[in-house]
UniProtKB/TrEMBL annotation:
PANTHER family (UniProt xref): TRYPTOPHAN SYNTHASE ALPHA CHAIN, CHLOROPLASTIC, TRYPTOPHAN SYNTHASE, ALPHA CHAIN
Protein's name in the database: Tryptophan synthase alpha chain
Residues of the active site: E50, D61
Gene3D superfamilies in alphabetical order: Aldolase class I
Job of this protein: The alpha subunit is responsible for the aldol cleavage of indoleglycerol phosphate to indole and glyceraldehyde 3-phosphate.
Domain of life: Bacteria
Gene that produces this protein: trpA
Known partners and oligomeric status: Tetramer of two alpha and two beta chains.
GO molecular function, one term: tryptophan synthase activity
Length: 268
């Protein structure tokens, strides 16, 4: 359990609102500029942030994040750069939880215990592991628990109630509820299945339930905030940087969108 992450989510709940959690990949738009991009999320009002570990086969991610991952990989990003971005962000924002969103293969290659130790040393709050089955998570969970790192698993509308109970029993920090079936990306509608998924997930756990996949506007953030503990936004931030004429313009656009979304989660 990560007390920093739990504290931030509890503080948002005490204010009768959802938390805003922003995502951007490391190495994007450049290796050195990634921390500035994440800082823009925080400056705009994100309560917590996810830093993605770029992957060559991001099965959960849609074309927007795939494009950003490809840019990051062509920039030469490595796992050590991801951890360095975490270190820079946590050093500048000691009260903001910073999680790494990563597929399991890079962690497995790096070494689960080593990755957990290096993430903790960088000030990270934990990991979101979308493709790691809980049945195979024992070594990671042991290392994470020893170091006080949260382990966030993903549930989907297709998850049956018994499966939800299995997943939530193993996770810590919060539960990541995928609002729609499919990959990440901004959508006109967030997905009618999200509220039902949150309700079913809450029946199995006391952990906060945060909803991601598809939120891109303040109105959508407010819609999700009405039934979720947190609103997770990624592709919309990535798109702002992709559309910008320069990295600096991209950071400004991210900051602006984060401010709009932060206002949205307060209108539940």
């Amino acid at each position: 359990m990560n007390t920093q992450l739990s504290g931030v989510l509890a503080a948002a709940k005490a204010e009768d609102r959802a938390a805003l959690i922003g995502y951007l990949p490391a190495g994007f738009p450049t290796i050195d500029g990634a921390a500035q991009a994440v800082q823009a999320l925080i400056d705009g009002g994100a309560d917590a942030v996810e830093i993605g570990l770029p992957h060559s086969d991001p099965v959960l991610d849609g074309p927007t994040i795939q494009t950003a991952d490809d840019i990051a990989l062509r920039n030469g990003v490595r796992t050590r750069d991801v951890l360095e971005t975490v270190r820079q962000v946590t050093a500048a924002n000691p009260t903001v939880p910073v999680l790494v969103m990563t597929y399991w293969n890079p962690v497995d290659r790096y070494g689960a215990a080593r990755f957990a130790a290096d993430l903790a040393a960088a000030g990270g709050a934990g990991c979101i592991l979308p493709d790691l089955p809980v049945e195979e998570a024992g070594p990671w969970l042991a290392a994470a628990e020893e170091l006080g790192l949260a382990t966030v698993f993903v549930v989907a509308p297709s998850s049956r109630d018994q499966r939800l109970a299995t997943i939530t029993a193993s996770g810590t920090g919060f539960v990541y509820a995928a609002a729609v079936m499919g990959v990440t990306g901004s959508r006109n509608q967030v997905g009618e299945m999200a509220e039902d998924l949150v309700r079913r997930t809450r029946a199995t756990t006391d952990l906060p339930v945060c909803v991601g996949l598809g939120v891109s506007t303040a109105a959508q953030a407010a819609e999700v905030a009405a039934f979720a503990d947190g609103v997770i936004v990624g592709s919309a931030f990535v798109q702002r940087i992709l559309d910008a004429a320069s990295p600096e313009a991209g950071y400004a656009a991210v900051r602006e969108l984060a401010a709009e979304l932060a206002e949205g989660v307060r209108k539940r």
